[in-house]
Structures are given as C-alpha cells and as structure tokens.
Amino acid sequence: MVKGKAGKKEDNWSYEEKVREVEEIITKIEAGDLDLVDVFSQFATAVEGLKQCDRFLQERQQQVDLLIETLQDE
Predict the structure, then answer these.
(1) N or C: which end of the chain has fewer CB within 10 A?
(2) 59 in a domain, yes or no?
(3) Considering just the CA atoms, what is the radius of gyration of the chain in Å?
(4) Which residues pair with 9 in a beta bridge?
C-alpha cells in the first residue's frame, strides 16, 4: 500500500505504471526536449516515483521474509 501526499491510500497505484512514468521522464530528459526548469521539475517527479517504488518493494520484501519465517517455524 502506497500513500499519497495527503497520507491517504492510493488504491489504483501500480508499480509497473510508476516505473513506466519514470522511464518516460528519463527519456525526455536524455533527449533534451525539456527546458531547464522542466528538467528539474521532472527529475524531482522521477525521484519521488522511485521512492514510492522502493517503499513498495521494501514492504513486499518484509511480507516475503515473514512468510518464509512462518514456514521455517512449522
């Protein structure tokens, strides 16, 4: 579960979609299609997207670790 800026749950958040968005931003930056101000804005958006993905993966890793631990205890 990933939380938005207001702290509420985003039910339609998708890891794959967020990765696609970050990749699109990187492509635009690398292509030089953006003004410098937009580069910084888009870069900040990409960084936030990567942080969301990292949190998502950390949460899933914790779930997997817990399941493995449960299996080992049996």
Answers:
(1) C
(2) yes
(3) 17
(4) 3
Number of residues that this document lists for the chain: 74
- Which tokens is 66 given? 């817990």
pLDDT at res. 10: 62
Contact 3, 56 (CB under 8 A): no
Domain range enclosing 47? 15-73
Q: How far apart are CA 19 and CA 24, in angstroms?
A: 9
Ranges of residues in the chain with a pLDDT under 50 are: 1, 4-8
For residue 21, being part of any structural domain is answered with yes
What is the predicted pLDDT for the residue at 24? 97
| Neighbouring C-beta atoms of residue 6, cutoff 10 Å | 6
The answer to whether residue 49 sits within a structural domain is yes
Number of structural domains found in the chain: 1
